[in-house]
UniProtKB/TrEMBL annotation:
It comes from the Bacteria. This is Alpha/beta hydrolase. Keywords: Hydrolase. It holds the Pfam family Hydrolase_4. Residues 40-243 form the Serine aminopeptidase S33 domain.
Amino acid sequence: MVTDVLGEPWLAETIDLRADFEGDVVATLISRPSAATTSRAVLHVHGFSDYFFHTEYADWWAERGHDAYGLDLRKYGRSIRSHQSATYVADLDEYFEELDAAWERITRRDGHDQVVLSAHSTGGLVCSLWAHARRPPELAGLILNSPWFDLQGKAWMRSPAATALLDQVGRRQPMRMFPREVSGHYARSLHREHEGEWEFDLRWKPIESFPVRFGWLRAIRRGHARLQAGLDVPAPVLVLASDRSTTPASMTDDVFSSDIVLDVGQIRRWATAVGPHVTFVAVPGAVHDVVLSCSEPRHRAYREILLWLDAYVLASR
């Protein structure tokens, strides 16, 4: 392990994974210990066009007696290599390898037997599928921050015909670019050199996002179908999202007080598909990454996490 780009006390550990069609593959486990020895930990997994830089969120957990970890998945953030197509996988189950490896390090090596898994957006979909498949005994709870449970946009995009066409193109031409327009409003609303308050590396979380390929989107839609068929995550689940979605054409107030990435109605609709014990909370004024919202909704989200943690996670252990 080496000192992470976030600086002390953060450490980064490269996890070597099986090579794929592009060559060598790695993931990166980022960690910081709490002040006292603890058996509790939290692992946070980022979303699409994203990586782990959530130090305030991690500090919040550390102050409450949890060792904090973040995982940069393959081809994201610290784990991107020059020979790779950023963010690309052909099957969401590919991510299970690094989740397994990170979990083994956090539990068996580092001695944690109560671990909360926290995940944002695409990471929320991936981690829901992983928790359902693996059911690790150390999983104390699952927090899903604006998880990507369905394809946003016009209804025809979710039709059987459109889904079949995407599946066919994604299978035959997986590296073909999927046409889309990205305004850049969301990333600009977050970054401190633009109109936000957060510091992050624009190489790893670019303003205009990363390109989307048909093969990757096919994997996402297949993941959506599995989730919507119903999962059985055995731990308590907390789903956080904004109270509304908007599609602003310019940098209006809506950019800073709503989800402009996903449809929160879809998140609410599919939340109970994750497992038998799900709590859904709509946070007024939150943005897509709820814990990167402005101060008031962000701290409202922290209060909701603490209430859920006390009621369903710590009380049952």
